Fold this sequence. Notes:
Helix content of chain A: under 10%
Largest interface: A-B, 25 and 21 residues
Helix content of chain B: under 10%
Low-confidence stretches of chain B: none
Distance between the termini of chain A: 36 Å
Oligomer: heterodimer
Mean pLDDT of chain B: 91
Shape of chain B: globular
Number of strands of chain A: 11
Largest sheet of chain B: 6 strands, mixed
Distance between the termini of chain B: 41 Å
Order of helices and strands of chain B: EEEEEEEEEEEE
Largest sheet of chain A: 7 strands, mixed
Order of helices and strands of chain A: EEEEEEEEEEE
Structural class of chain B: mainly beta
Number of strands of chain B: 12
Radius of gyration of chain A: 13 Å
Amino acid sequence: EAQVTQNPRYLITVTGKKLTVTCSQNMNHEYMSWYRQDPGLGLRQIYYSMNVEVTDKGDVPEGYKVSRKEKRNFPLILESPSPNQTSLYFCASWGSFDYEQYFGPGTRLTVT
Amino acid sequence: GDSVTQMEGPVTLSEEAFLTINCTYTATGYPSLFWYVQYPGEGLQLLLKATKADDKGSNKGFEATYRKETTSFHLEKGSVQVSDSAVYFCALTPRVGGSNYKLTFGKGTLLTVNP
């Protein structure tokens, strides 16, 4: 089954404690992206990747890092989380000639 | 930059009512337009899309027509069901040299359908 998986689905952590949210896709897609969803703001892109070792900033990259060492994986790293990063995070992937983005189920992060 | 404006919710309808969710956009060139749906507790799923002017996207009884003259992509359904209750997002992606690297979303419209 074609899918994008994210882990964990729920995470509660404290300010400053480094964390990683994993994202994996099994569709051999070139592109991957991270979004955050906040009430009243919709979805905003954090980072995206066009292929292995190629990443670029989206609209709200501050406080986040990403890496793309393998085509299927695109982890999101918060090196020093802060309460304003409490949000619902989605990973997505898509192919070069397909405008449809496939979304993971989401990770709800709470930073206290 | 690119932007999408969709009607604010929430929208509450009775089963079998007619649905319209308005969406307008600002973008250079000829973007592709999408409607995504998010059911409770789930990620987003593509509902329908249109890639050029006058295209009509349709799926599951929903329709939207790409109107370049009014920069709009309104979502419609003739008879909603309780199972259509969800958040609906209008989105666009620019065509920059044929690449597709960014979706710009509207803020979402929560639809609740009562039996």
